[in-house]
Amino acid sequence: MTHNRYVVILGCGRLGSYLANRLSRDGNSVVVIDKDEATFRNLSPDFSGFRVIGDAGHMAVLKEAKLKKADVLIATTREDNVNLMVAQVGRKIFGVPQVLARVFDPKREEVYAQLEIDTICPTSVAADIFLRAIANDAAKMRGKSS
Amino acid sequence: MTHNRYVVILGCGRLGSYLANRLSRDGNSVVVIDKDEATFRNLSPDFSGFRVIGDAGHMAVLKEAKLKKADVLIATTREDNVNLMVAQVGRKIFGVPQVLARVFDPKREEVYAQLEIDTICPTSVAADIFLRAIANDAAKMRGKSS
Prior knowledge:
Chain A is an alpha/beta fold. Helix content of chain A is about 40%, strand content about 20%. Chain A has a single domain (about 5-145), classed as NAD(P)-binding Rossmann-like Domain (Rossmann fold, 3-Layer(aba) Sandwich). In chain A, strands 3-2-1-4-5-6 form a six-stranded parallel beta sheet, with helices on both faces. In chain A, helix 1 links the parallel strand 1 (about 5-10) and strand 2. The radius of gyration of chain A is 18 Å and the shape is globular. The interface of A and B includes residues 15, 129, 131 and 137 of A.
């Protein structure tokens, strides 16, 4: 796997910090942006990247994170609109090659796709896993009764 | 796939309502429990199951949902403690054969496993998908430059 990529992560909540810790440990250069400084305690002691405190809606904050240099931008906040806006800015203004965004509302996925932003909807993913588990269990029970 | 199973879903938020709509459409008997009646508008117009308004911490509410008859119990609220408690009650007191729970804090997954409750942590799942997408993109880029 290629390491040493420059990754900017928006949001240091559960998902953002998990990714930051993991990508940092794997040898990538990681910058995490969050407007709430308290979220940075989600980072592990061996996190070797940078922390930027600020509102990602401000160009100055994105510049401080050196978004222009980024190979990857990941928008992980709990707000779809924030993720969409910053992802677009990253793609169109800063020319980031790979942009990924978390999107809670599955109906928005189409908009993101048209803007060439890769999305993941945790709700759909979780639902699919639950449905598979139920189907597998049903299959097992059929096996037993036959 | 076996249809016509009796499924009780705790929580009618994004995940709970998605599962309820899907499982109802597939021909299962579905009961959704939520203490907030407003969440039921997440159910689609063709949802053919039952709605129970109430706190799942009360036995009367679980009895009203006929949990004893259930083939499957899925706990989907945003609160790990609520999901764990109701999942345990479903397994131990009502003898539900399959119990699934959403868990936000990955550290709690071990506790659930010991209680024989299947869990899914949307944060871990989403993170893994993001990490795979980044790794794939890196592989593509290496392919181009070689």
